Structure of Methyltransferase domain-containing protein:
Amino acid sequence: MTGSARPTGAAEVFEQAAASYDRTGVSFFGPFGAELVRRADIRPGERVLDVGCGRGAVLFPAAQATGPTGHVTGIDLAPAMVALTAEDVTRAGLTHVDVRVDDAQQPDFPPGSFDAVLAGLVVFLLPQPRQALRAYARLLRPSGRLVISTFGVQDPAFVAATDALAAHLPADQARPTRPAGPFDDEQAISATMDGAGLAVTSIVEHRVESRFDDVDHWMRWMWSHGGRALLRHLPQDRLPAATADAAEALAAARAPGGGLRLTTEIRITVAVPAGPPDA
Ligand SMILES: C[S@@+](CC[C@H](N)C(=O)[O-])C[C@H]1O[C@@H](n2cnc3c(N)ncnc32)[C@H](O)[C@@H]1O
């Protein structure tokens, strides 16, 4: 599987976004990744897998936590993400880190390979998240833990702005929906983990405020991550009107000193193997 995987589904969007992902001058993925690693309580010498590593928001803090006596492997299905992050790893001189193309749905490693499996803002993108969590449970050593982050309650101004953009989609283009899912709230997360043979030890909320110079900056940021999945379906000639409507919808996010600010909430869940893993 390693090296032969092709970006499909969500990863296809991130393949296009890789060059600007987390590089638009907005504080977002970095602080979320650092907090996930803090909650994972990684110790020097541990072996860590970071699934859906992107540009390394989780990978780099994890590498610092394991130190050179440990090891961190990052996997991502988007080859551009992997290539750019691998360059950053080399530039940073981190010989205890490797990054490779692999599918977070079923990572290709022997059972019991890791002390910690980390998944920052990725499990809800997978076609079969419950099966993926089961696979992560199998990859853990008996004393290991899985730490994931998922989105919590969204900033109403962000929801209004994305709805304003979606209103400009062509009539035959499906609107983004928010169906009930396995990570919707604490109860759903616990039930999902339980079904994967994992016992939740903590779920904490963490909020980050992100600042934008103006709506154009917000749009550049939207193109640089999963927001691209919506924007790429907007007809070119609708973009100015869509951007104007998004600006209006973001009125509640206007900061007193100028610019925009949005608060994003994530939930960080720590879980441990509940017993012998499922077959
Ligand atoms: C929202 S980003 C999060 C990246 C990083 N963990 C962070 O916190 O910044 C989601 C990442 O998951 C990757 N991804 C999506 N589906 C995947 C899959 N099936 N296997 C591996 N990676 C996947 C995307 O390419 C993208 O890099």
Notes: The chain has a mean pLDDT of 94. The domain at 10-154+179-211+265-273 is CATH 3.40.50.150 (Rossmann fold). The longest helix spans residues 79-91.
